Amino acid sequence: MKKLAVLLVMGLICQLGEVGARDLKADPLTGRIRVIYIGDAIGVTNPFPVLEADPLLMCTAVYACTIHQTTDEIRKSLRNYMPRTYSRFLNTDVIVLSDANKDAFRTEHFNWFKRGVIEEGMGLVMIGGAESFSDPGWPSWKTTEVADVLPCEMMEAVSQAQGGIVKIVDWEDEFIKSLPFKKLSPYGTFSGHNWIEPRMNAKLLAVLVHIGVGESPFLMWWDIGKGRTMAQSADWTPAGGSVFLRWQYWGDYAINMMLFLAGQKMSEGLEVVYMVRRRMRETNDAIAMLYNMVDLIEEFGGNADNVVRLITDVQEEKAKGMGFYVEAQLDEALQTFAKTVTMCDEAMDAALKARDAAAFWIFFTEWCVVTGTFLLAGSLLWVTMVKRRLYREITTTKLIREDA
Description:
This protein is α/β, with parallel strands linked by helices. It has 2 domains: 2-261, Class I glutamine amidotransferase (GATase) domain (Rossmann fold, 3-Layer(aba) Sandwich), CATH 3.40.50; 270-404, no CATH class. It is built from 12 helices and 11 strands. The model is unreliable at 1-20 (pLDDT under 50).
C-alpha cells in the first residue's frame, strides 16, 4: 500500500511537471547559470574546463570519482566546495553527476538533490560511468533519492553493456535541434554504457545501436516538479567516449545541456553560436600563451611592458565580446572575437620580437665569455708551449752509456 502511494505521488509530480511552464533557473544578480560538476572533474579529459570558460555559466568542481581521485582529495574537495547547508545549496541551478561515487556523499545530500529539483526548479543530469547509475561492482545510486527524480530506471546487470553507435530518435526535440547532430555520425561511437531504461513519461532522444544485437537507450529527459533532469547512459570521458571527444561540437553539447537543464531557451543561428564559442576559446588560449611569453621574456631579462599593454587591450575587447554573447547579440560578439584573435596575433608578434631581443643579449654575452676564454687559453698555450719562455733552450742531446 505504501509503495502504491509513492507511485501515485510520483505520477502526480510528473504530470505537474509536464503541464507547468519551465522557468529559467539562474543567478538573479548576474543571470549566469550556477553549475556544480560532481565526479570526474579532474584526472581525465572531461567537459568541465569548457563549461567553466563559458560566460553563461558559473561552475564549481567537486571531486567524487574514486577512479581518478584519491580518498583524501575527495574528502577535501567535498569539504571545501560542496555546500554545507541546504540554504547554501539553493544557490545552485544545475547539478552534474559524472562518474560520482555514491558513497562519497552524506545521506542528506541525496535529499538535497531531490528537493532541489522538485521544489526549487534545479536541473540535474547523471552521465554514465563505472560509478554512475547501478553498475555492477560499484555502489548503486538506485537506493538513493536521486533515482526518484531521474528520467530512467536503473537496471541490474552482471556487467557493463557493450558499446554502440548513437542514433537520434526524436529530431524535433528542442535540445536535439540546438546541436548539429547530423554531423555526429563519424564520432557518435561509445565503447560501453550503463543499463538504464526510460520511465513512462520520459522523452527518449537517442539510442545506442549495437551491431547484431539491437538497441539500448542512450539519452533521455523529463520535467519533474519544477525542475528538469537528464540521463546519459555512456561516459563522456575517454573511458567510454574517446571517439565522441573528437567531435568538434562536444563542448557545445555539454554547454547546451547545462542551458537546457536550467530552462534556457535554445538559441537559433547555431553556426554563429558555435563560431563565437570557438573564437572565444581561441582568444583564451592565445592570452594564456601570451602570459607564458611574458614570463619567458622577463626570465631572459627583457622588457615585456609593451606586450603586457597589448594583452590588456585584448582583455578589454574580450570583455566586450563576452557581454555581446551573454546578451545574445551574436553577430556583434562574432565580430568582436574575430578582432581579439587578430589582436592576439599582433601581440604575439610583439612578444616574439621582445623575446628575440632579450635572447640576443644573452647569446651575445655568452659568445663574449666563450670567445674571451678561448683567446686567453690560446695565449697562455702560445706563451707556454710555443714560445717556451719559461724553459732554457738546448741545442742537442745525446745518450751517454754507463760503461763508457
